[in-house]
Amino acid sequence: MKIYLDQEVFNKIMAFAAFTRDEFSGFGFCEVDKEADGIFVYDFEPLDIGNYVFTKISPEKILPLMSREDARNLKVWVHRHPMGNGIPGRHNWSGTDEDTITQEPLGSPPHFVLWSVSIVLTPKGLVGRIDKYKDGKVITKHLEVTPNIDSYHPTFAALEGERTKRLRAAEDERKILELADSMFDDFMDDLPEEYWDMDYAEAKGIIEHQAKDLVNFQPELMTEGAAHGSHQTHRDIRRQQTEHQSSWLRWYWSNRGDHAG
Ligand SMILES: [Zn+2]
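Above: query sequence and zinc ion SMILES. Below: predicted holo structure tokens.
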């Protein structure tokens, strides 16, 4: 079972979401589509911005919807909030949402409504649910909504992936430079006299190269540390690395043929 949105309804919800950054709320009209095994939402009316509790939506706004010829299809509550991940399940619904849906669906007593559909726009997409009210009990089924923001255009996910990669690369670059700096400082401290005539630019180059290896290697070191039950901090590990690297560099410089030492 799925919730199908008419293209115009999807567009309208997305346009509303683009119009305001706040939470919003509205009502929708739907029909049961037995053939498609789902609920087809064919209309959506935005009712409120910055507020999503029905009881706070003024009756004058709801009344015209109630007076429509197809008022019996007024079964859908649509809202946006900043929680959830777009994968159907109860984690997408707040405690207030739960109370509203189970105790006062569409602003009415549950036994009046019989069943209701709710759709929420989470930061990662739309999710829905259908709730059936019978003999004081509520049966909830969490449903996928289509079309949706993540499935709507495959390029979106690809672009998001590229962005994540870019951010990660920039973060690695920052870590490398920071580590190279601290390694170079470490190396320069107590620098034995025989290295004073070395090529500092070359040394810095080598250190940056080593820092790059270390940054790429860090996750494994961290895991190893954790596996040994040690409570080494990132900083401890880094200190060990720089100590190791500066002694390695000293060895490198002292073993180069062109350095008399
Ligand atoms: Zn909510």
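Residues 52, 79, 81, 94, 97, 120 surround zinc ion (CB under 6 Å).
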